[in-house]
Amino acid sequence: AAVQVAVKTFGTLNVLVNGAAGNFLSTAENLSTNAFRTVLDIDAVGTFNMSTAAFPVLKHNSGVIVNISANLHQHATWYQAHAAAAKAAVDSLTRSLALEWGRFKIRVVGVAPGPTADTPGIAKLSGGMEDLASQVVPLGRMGTKTEIGQVVVFVVSSAGAYVTGDTILADGGHYLHQDPVVPPDMVAEWYHKREKTTSKL
Q: Where does the UniProt annotation place the signal sequence (predicted)?
């Protein structure tokens, strides 16, 4: 129905952005099967349903499908077993549809935001997220909705015309974060001691 409304309103459909998501915090042992299934239904099944519904129109327009993913499954994320599994499925679907529908000149690309300010997900969490982001995101801050939107604009524009099947991480390098085994100040102290020792040789 949504595809039909879009075509009726705008005359055609060139771009589909699958952005639906369901998420909440829960330990795996407290997560019910129904809750787990619900998130997969929203994220993965919803992405599949919208993509296949739009396919008959997009195949005539060299259309673009953008699947909004996340970086949760790039590493293990606390209390996000359901959402990480769902977004991993979305990424897999991105690759599969890109492979199968490339012959129709349909591009399928994922965009995976990291922590993004002023979003419902961040609003559900306690305060101090900005300070936390400065510690776990290499760029030292959360992203903005505008920045994520600009990545989507790139994907659907002629600048991204040769990109398909990939999921672009737009998370400020958050997926790279690992708590250091040795504190940075201790590493710096060792380094300076080594430099002094070396200079005496």
A: none
